[in-house]
Amino acid sequence: MTKNYETFARVYDAIMDDSLYDLWTDFSLRHFSKGKTKLLELACGTGIQSLRFAQAGFEVTGLDLSEEMLKVAEKRAQEAGVKIDFVAANMMDLSGIGQFDLVTSYSDSLCYLADEVEMGDTFTEVYKHLNDGGTFIFDVHSTYQTDEVFPGYSHHENAEDFAMVWDTYEDEAPHSIVHELTFFIQDEDGRFTRYDEIHEERTYELLTYDILLEQAGFTDVKVYADFEDKAPTDKSARWFFVARK
């Protein structure tokens, strides 16, 4: 792995609000099936949430499409002295991954799926690989967040060794957005390298998620909002689904 990518991953981690990981962990611990320990984290990225779960006593497997992100995650787990299995795979095909008591996907990772078909395929895969009595928890952007809050959003950040410009626009599909990110990261000889990224996200009405979960086999589904054990309102930013098998 290049030093550049490590730096890039560190910048990614730096722009994340660290307190969110505590909130995701606390929400999970409140809603996980009791006495269950074998956990699969979908779209684990650089492994911060996987590490939190492992430190809380779970037997964790972290899955992500990006092998580079997983290298950062592996290094993070090694430095913490914690054993976590990291797997490079697509969440729409979990064959060969094994069976789990608990499956999570946080930080609106499922919003990166292209459409309802991919969302439904992912739910079906999770259901197949979840043990009876197990729990699947995920969060997604609310339609209020994608339709009212994000369009026109702009965030600029300057630090000594990096700068970031983040702008968000409404996309063509209903409840979809595009994030345009530009990073300037300083390398070892003091020069700045530019990185450009496009992130496309999409969410759906609450009813759509309910139908897709039901089609996958889930019959016990609860919906909460913004890390609290309360029902969503019309201005909730983030929806949390707790589905039991």
Automatic annotation (TrEMBL):
Domain Methyltransferase: 40-134
Matches recorded under Gene3D superfamilies: S-adenosyl-L-methionine-dependent methyltransferases, Vaccinia Virus protein VP39
Keyword flag DNA damage: no
UniProt feature coiled coil, ranges: none
Record keywords, A-Z: Transferase, Ubiquinone
Record CDD domains: AdoMet_MTases
Protein name: Ubiquinone/menaquinone biosynthesis C-methylase UbiE
Organism: Streptococcus moroccensis
